[in-house]
TrEMBL record:
Positions of AMP binding: K412, G413, A414, N415, T416, G440
Source taxonomy: Bacteria, Pseudomonadati, Bacteroidota, Flavobacteriia, Flavobacteriales
Known EC number: 4.2.1.136, 5.1.99.6
Organism: Winogradskyella wandonensis
This protein's name: Bifunctional NAD(P)H-hydrate repair enzyme
Residue numbers binding K(+): N59, D127, S163
Cofactor binding: number and manner: Binds 1 potassium ion per subunit.
Length: 517
């Protein structure tokens, strides 16, 4: 699903109005009606007090359309206009007049703190004060209004975007914003729903379709895209009945040191479980017996050294290599990585200590093959690209890094972001149960396994991050947040593949008949 920028949304409105020859404020009518339908479906006429707070731009206009429908359907509604200036939008004024057609009560004008209404914790707040048009700091009395919402603990439904948040830059005052329980976002979600510093703007969100021109939506390239099942399903490569293991490539995991052979086990098993035909681990000698015993499907090649990697020599021809897991940064290992990068021709997934070594030896960056996949967690990313001032700055720096060195950067986190030059993909699979030792090693293994099977680097990164998160989500159902282990994620890679082809559950015929009767 594409995430449109504010500028693209405004352009989409214009194109739609032209293409569909819409009368003025028709899109606002659609927006307000859709929000009403959403509420009506859930509230079924319940007389809970609903406080609709409207700004004076089009977001406020949407709020007024909603309020009008709530009033005509007999809901218990109070409408307020948050008077923060004189530049009321044309469509706002049209909606304002229409509210007066259906109610004798004028919307209450709020101008300062003494005007604030009482809000009970069981009431509902609709926040239609600022939308994507917010363009400057908010006055302090409006921030006080936002705090009044918060203090009430009432359920807060935000229209399009919680008020006070910008679509493309951080907020300056952490207190001067609305934090919504639910946000109904028009046509596409907002980027801020997915970034660590801003995701608490809303607990849940949903996209509302207001019929923006389909061609425009299809043909407009966006900087950000959400990745879920719909996006990865077309990448899946089905298996031919007569396929043999030679068709699915040979994956190599290079890593491990004394006490960290388990990490290699997890990654190697993930290469196998994601579908590679053959898999080899290159490790120090100390890992030979444990790995051969615990993972009979894998082959093992050892370094000359017992405890660490000192020279990455092998006589196999891997189709993809995942390197860095549990490897340490011993001087001999640093030299081994340098020598390896100079000679290597295979596609790479670079993780953990290999990333840390590269961060400390910038001259190695130019040795990384084009389209290699780097999988840093935030601390490793900082070592690579330097400090950032906020999430937007982080994404810009990561994009510049990806463009400069022609590599893919996977920023791991609650919502993992795959950076491919200036384009960014956000994966929404995964859960906090995966914040556990070794889960990153599993991701490296999965992506290496996909590269082996001739998924191209971008597909491997997107599909790999999706499968990893999905396997974690499925494993969660069995183990719960606390007991989920990285090896459980590996166990569920197969279920994650199978789930690709499961349809959402359809209601049984009897249920449909009961609903219709
Ligand atoms: N395709 C879409 O997504 C559509 C969006 N619509 C709505 O239109 C909204 C955008 O409308 P607008 O562009 O009018 O913008 P907003 O309604 O977000 O607000 C802009 C108004 O607030 C003022 N303002 C901005 N920052 C302020 C501040 N800090 N303090 C006081 N006043 C401030 C502006 O001068 C302007 O008058 C969307 O968020 C959405 O709710 C719909 O009405 C139609 C279709
Ligand atoms: N709260 C979370 N929600 C979703 N995924 C998470 C969360 N915390 C961690 N993960 C995922 O778990 C993995 C952790 O990787 P990493 O930090 O490298 O762990 P390790 O080094 O222990 O293997 C990443 O893929 C990350 O996206
Ligand atoms: K809003």
């Amino acid at each position: 699903m594409k995430i449109f920028s504010k500028e693209q949304i405004y352009k989409g409105d214009k194109v739609t109005e032209e293409q569909q020859s819409l009368p003025p404020s028709e899109l606002m009518e659609r927006a307000g009606l859709q929000i009403f339908n959403w509420m009506h479906l859930r509230m079924q006429g319940a007389q809970v007090p609903i406080h609709v707070f409207c700004g004076i731009g089009n977001n406020g206009g949407d709020g007024l359309v909603l309020a009008r429908h709530l009033i005509t359907h007999g809901y218990n509604v109070e409408v307020y206009v948050v008077n923060c200036g004189n530049s009321r939008s044309k469509d706002f004024l049209t909606s304002y007049d229409k509210v007066k057609d259906v109610s004798k009560k004028w919307p209450q004008l709020l101008k300062c703190e003494t005007d604030f209404p009482d809000i009970h914790r069981d009431d509902i707040i609709v926040d239609a004060i600022f939308g994507i048009g917010l363009n400057r700091e908010i006055e302090s009395w409006i921030k006080a209004l936002f705090n009044h919402f918060k203090a009430s603990s009432a359920f807060t439904l935000s229209v399009d975007i919680p008020s006070g948040w910008f679509t493309d830059k951080p907020i300056e005052d952490n207190e001067g914003v609305v934090r919504a329980n639910y946000t109904l976002s028009f046509q596409s979600p907002k980027l801020i729903f997915f970034l660590p510093e801003t995701a608490d703007c809303t607990i849940q969100w949903e996209v509302i379709d207001i019929g923006i021109d389909r061609d425009y939506l299809m043909t407009t390239e966006t900087e950000y895209e959400l990745i879920s099942k719909n996006e990865v399903l077309p990448m899946y490569k089905p298996r031919d009945k007569y396929a043999h293991k030679g068709d699915f490539g040979h994956g190599l995991i290079v890593g491990g040191s004394y006490g960290k052979i388990g990490a290699v086990h997890l990654a190697t098993r993930s290469v196998l479980s994601s579908g590679a035909g053959l898999t080899t681990a290159f490790i120090p000698k100390c890992g030979y017996v444990p790995l051969q015993t615990s993972l009979p499907e894998a082959m093992v090649i050892t370094d000359a050294d017992t405890n660490k990697i000192t020279a990455i020599d092998f006589d196999i021809k891997p189709d993809a290599i995942g390197i860095g897991i549990g490897m340490g940064k011993f001087p001999d290992t640093v030299s081994a990585l340098k020598a390896f990068l100079k000679n290597n021709k295979a596609p790479l997934v670079i993780d953990a200590d290999a990333l840390n070594i590269i961060s400390e030896n910038n001259d190695l960056l130019k040795l990384i093959p084009e389209n290699s996949i780097l999988t840093p967690h935030p601390k490793e990313l900082e070592r690579l690209i330097g400090e950032w001032s906020n999430d937007f700055d982080k994404l810009k720096k990561a994009s510049d890094f990806s463009t400069k060195y022609k590599v893919l950067v996977i920023i791991k986190g609650a919502n993992t972001i795959i950076v491919y030059g200036q384009k960014k993909f956000i994966s929404v699979t995964g859960n906090p149960g995966m914040a556990t030792a070794g889960s990153g090693d599993v991701l490296t293994g999965i992506i290496t396994g996909l590269l082996c099977q001739k998924y191209n680097p971008l597909e491997s990164a997107l599909f790999g991050v999706y499968l990893h998160g999905k396997a974690g989500d499925l494993a969660l159902e069995e183990y719960g947040y606390q007991s989920l282990l990285a090896s459980h994620i590996v166990d569920y890679i197969g279920e994650a593949y199978i789930d690709l082809f499961k349809q959402p559950e359809q209601p049984q015929q009897e249920e449909v008949e009961a609903e219709n009767s």
